[in-house]
Design a protein that fits this description.
Elements (H helix, E strand, L loop, with lengths): L2 E2 L7 E4 L8 E4 L2 E4 L9 E3 L8 E4 L2 E6 L8 E2 L4 E2 L25 E6 L5 E2 L3 E6 L5 H10 L10 E4 L10 H15 L4 E8 L7 H8 L7 E5 L6 H16 L5 E4 L4 E6 L10 H14 L3 E4 L9 H5 L5 H20 L10 H5 L5 H8 L8 E5 L9 E5 L5 H11 L3 E6 L11 E5 L2 H6 L6 E2 L9 H16 L5 H4 L15
Length: about 500
């Protein structure tokens, strides 16, 4: 198959392989002759569209024609533009969500924590309260590597430039995210390292953390110590002894929390990797587990699909606020709301934000939306949740970890090596990327555009994620990549 028409109402189809000018392709029983070269992942017009008329893909509008477009023409940024506008009024028009039911209960091998949470990794995290001590925590990470062994899988320092000279929401975001990570169950133990004079000091963070008498948390205030490295190593040795007391146990998949994210998307993302992740989300929800979808700016144009799946009016109202608050964030800063897609997205065949969003939201599957989270909130509802965070890969993936995700599933058509604080599993939308970047990619969904179906891969993919939850390292973990980024949107003193 050379092209695919996703929905019977579409007036464009997606090229699965490059189409040369003059080639004829069969689209739903109709022969179309290409009048231009069309790259793989890009769109070909399958019925004439007048200037100003809607371009339809996925069964929804992805923009309007900037000029008349004839059958067989290449449809892209030169002849299509967004049809989106500013803040909108929405009506709750619920549709029956297609919730699945599990035939058998799934399990993974994880770590039971004393507070009732579970982890999929048994690590020590070193969390700096302020960027001033980044060098110290990196030194401690390096020196403490000799402590790794037994069930203690890694010791990781998560550096960042924040924690002081911040005001308002920025300061609050930093405190919430740091405390979320300190409490994350993938960390068997945590060393919190402060300077002593910062706004978000250890004393302030303790109010956000909760139980600071826990044997899993130790604090180091560097200005109080004559030799902070020596004192830090003593604390890490103590924490390592505690962490090594945990062992993997059989745990029901209903305890698993998985974040859903994409980046470097291409024209295949909405056909292969994202729908596959959507199927996973439905599978996990059927098990009683939890998934979290974020990247609010990449919901614009597809938000009503999510709103109509909200479990009740309250959840719908919170989703509306999440969408419009993010639009207001753009406009209040004097920035265009619909600047997306990125140059890489466009090169891969994505033409407008609607085109990107309709592909992006495929990751949510078909299950009901059960919860809506503000940035820095920890997930409470089982099933599918929406999280307010930007599209930026590092910021959004960190927000998913902060919300409680044990693992982040990251689909990509262009490729990226980064990782957030939790295992970040890369799923390629095309086989060329999987072959070229085998040290980045953990699972190739590109075969769905070749000789496999989502049904063929769904259970295999679900089991692969359970393997990761059970200890199988993803490529970024093997490479020792660990990143953390906090959402900053205000003034720095």
């Amino acid at each position: 198959m050379q092209v695919i028409r996703i929905n019977d109402n579409d007036n464009v189809a997606v090229a699965l392989t490059p189409i040369t000018k003059g080639d004829t392709v069969d689209i739903s029983g109709v022969t179309v002759t290409a009048v231009q070269d069309i790259p793989a992942g890009h769109k070909i017009c399958i019925s004439p569209v007048k200037s100003g008329e809607d371009i339809i893909k996925y069964g929804y509008r992805i923009g309007r024609a900037k000029a008349d477009i004839g059958t067989g023409e290449w449809v892209h940024i030169h002849n299509i533009q967004t049809a989106l506008s500013g803040l909108l009024e929405y009506t709750y028009d619920p549709v029956p969500a297609q919730a699945r039911s599990a035939e058998t209960q799934a399990y993974f091998m994880g770590y039971n924590r004393p507070d009732g949470k579970v982890g999929v990794r048994n690590e020590i995290w070193i969390i700096p309260t302020v960027g001033c001590v980044n060098g110290i925590v990196r030194t401690l990470e390096k020196k403490a590597s000799s402590l790794i062994g037994g069930s203690l899988e890694d010791i990781i320092a998560f550096t960042h430039p924040y924690g002081c000279s911040q005001l308002g929401d920025d300061q609050e975001n930093t405190r919430k995210v740091l405390s979320d990570l300190i409490c994350h169950p993938n960390a068997a133990a945590v060393l919190v390292v402060g300077l002593g004079c910062e706004n978000s000091s250890i004393g302030v963070l303790k109010d956000y953390i909760g139980d600071t008498d826990s044997p899993r948390i130790r604090f180091l205030n560097c200005q109080d110590m004559e030799d902070e490295i020596e004192e830090g190593m003593k604390l890490l040795e103590e924490l390592a002894g505690y962490a090594k007391g945990f062992r993997r146990e059989k745990i029901s998949a209903d305890k698993l929390i998985v974040g859903l994210k994409c980046g470097g998307s291409d024209g295949f993302s909405g056909l292969t990797a994202n729908p596959l992740v959507g199927r996973f989300s439905d599978f996990l929800a059927a098990q009683g587990g939890t998934t979290i979808l974020t990247e609010v700016p990449e919901m614009f144009g597809a938000e009503t699909i999510l709103m109509d799946r909200c479990k009740d009016k309250e959840t719908f109202d919170r989703t509306v606020c999440m969408i419009n608050d993010f639009k207001s964030y753009f406009s209040s800063s004097g920035q265009p709301i619909y600047e997306n897609p990125s140059p890489g997205n466009k090169a891969g065949g994505i033409s407008t934000l609607e085109d990107k969003s309709l592909g992006c939201t495929q990751k949510s599957g078909t299950s009901p939306v059960n919860g809506v989270l503000a940035y820095g909130d920890r997930v409470q509802e089982k099933g599918l949740n929406l999280l307010s965070a930007p599209g930026n890969d590092l910021v959004a993936a960190t927000a998913l970890a902060s919300a409680g995700a044990h693992i982040v599933l990251f689909t990509t058509g262009r490729g990226t090596p980064f990782a957030c604080p939790v295992p970040t599993m890369k799923i390629s939308s095309n086989s060329a990327l999987a072959g070229k970047k085998s040290k980045w990619i953990d699972f190739n969904a590109g075969v769905i555009a070749e000789d496999k179906t989502i049904d063929d891969l769904a259970q295999v993919f679900f089991n692969t994620v359970l393997d990761v939850a059970s200890g199988k390292k993803v490529r970024s973990e093997v490479a020792a990549f660990h990143d953390m980024a906090i959402f900053k949107k205000g003034v720095t003193l």
